[in-house]
UniProtKB/TrEMBL annotation:
InterPro entries listed in its UniProt record: Kinase-like_dom_sf, Prot_kinase_dom, Ser-Thr/Tyr_kinase_cat_dom, Ser/Thr_Kinases-Pseudokinases
Gene Ontology molecular function terms on file: ATP binding; protein serine/threonine kinase activity
Keyword Kinase: yes
Domain (Protein kinase): residue spans on this chain: 1-227
Organism, scientific name: Rhizophagus irregularis (strain DAOM 181602 / DAOM 197198 / MUCL 43194)
PROSITE patterns per UniProt: PROTEIN_KINASE_DOM
Protein name: Kinase-like domain-containing protein
Length: 307
């Protein structure tokens, strides 16, 4: 058995918690002799499958609750002093609720590792810029990935789905390119996404802060969030009602060179990660002006808040 497979079994045994997919054991194919894990069946597939198959409007209250559960699972991993290292929407499985899966790359957070010559393993749109540059993977890198997942769940759009996932995209990410935050996402949620995918690791929230924030919103401890989601749900419901099947398929259609499975990536001399310039105010309406690969879709965030 390969080390990654053994590592995943070990991780499941060490982190057997409610928001982590359950592993029942291992089995062996009688013909190929390959070993396989027996894990809990999730009938709704991964997050992307779940959103694509959904025929009903998914409101923000529901999404906040599910994001809180995902954050709780990530907190459990980090409290066990491990990092996931391959955190993306393909590894969020849905049954009655969301479960974090694929712990094959999950490793102790205190182990210092040098990047192998052949590269780093992951899904490019979800990888923190410092990881793309070959720095050690940390809990903060998992938080960056959470920000991308959070925006994907709220916007129901796959990140960077219509452009190649190559070195050019990696350079743009290091220069501040992020998936566009839809203007019908509540401002409090948008602000949290921006904090999670900040280019500076120290500016990202800790997993505990992330969970406590989402848990507070989910349990009704913040009246402002309910005002915002009520207003944004009205806008989004109208869009959902008028959305055609063709519009929906565009959100989930991918470029032939957009790859959403983990693979080895090796980029040389990427620029130092930076944030774009932000301007904030207390208004709940916002828009993003774009200077990017595809101005209609992605933004180097220069936020202008307006009344």
């Amino acid at each position: 058995m390969c080390s990654d497979f053994l590592n995943e079994i070990k991780s499941h045994l060490q982190i057997h918690l409610v928001d982590i997919i359950q592993c029942f054991g291992i089995t062996q194919d009688p013909n190929s002799k390959e070993y396989m894990m027996v894990i809990e069946y999730c009938n709704n597939g991964n997050l992307r499958n779940y959103l694509n198959k959904s025929e009903n409007y998914i409101d923000y209250k529901f999404k906040i609750d599910k994001l809180q559960q995902i954050a709780r699972g990530l907190l459990d991993i980090h409290n066990a002093e491990k990092v996931h290292k391959d955190f993306h929407s393909g590894n969020i499985l849905f049954k009655y609720g969301p479960y974090i899966s694929d712990l094959g790359m999950c490793q102790p957070a205190n182990i210092k590792q040098t990047v192998k010559e052949e590269g780093i393993c992951g899904v490019l749109p979800y990888m923190a810029p410092e990881v793309l540059r070959g720095q050690q993977y940390t809990k903060a890198a998992d938080i960056y990935s959470f920000g991308i997942i959070m925006n994907e769940f709220l916007s129901e759009e796959i990140p960077f789905n219509d452009i190649p996932h190559n070195e050019f995209l990696a350079i743009k990410i290091c220069k501040g390119l992020r998936p566009t935050i839809s203007n019908d996402i509540p401002k409090l949620l948008a602000d949290l996404i921006i904090k999670c995918w900040d280019a500076e690791m120290k500016n990202r929230p800790t997993t505990k802060e992330l969970y406590q924030t989402l848990n507070g919103w989910s349990s009704g401890q913040n009246s402002e969030i309910y005002f915002q989601i009520e207003e944004c749900d009205k806008i989004r419901k109208e869009k959902f009602k008028n959305r055609s099947n063709e519009d929906k398929s565009k959100s989930f259609k991918t470029h032939p060179q957009a790859i959403y499975t983990s693979r080895l990536l090796n980029f040389n001399s990427l620029p130092k990660p930076v944030n774009s310039s932000f301007q904030f105010s207390s208004d709940t309406n916002y828009t993003a002006q774009s200077t990017s690969v595809n101005p209609s879709k992605y933004s180097l965030y220069y936020y202008n808040y307006f009344s």
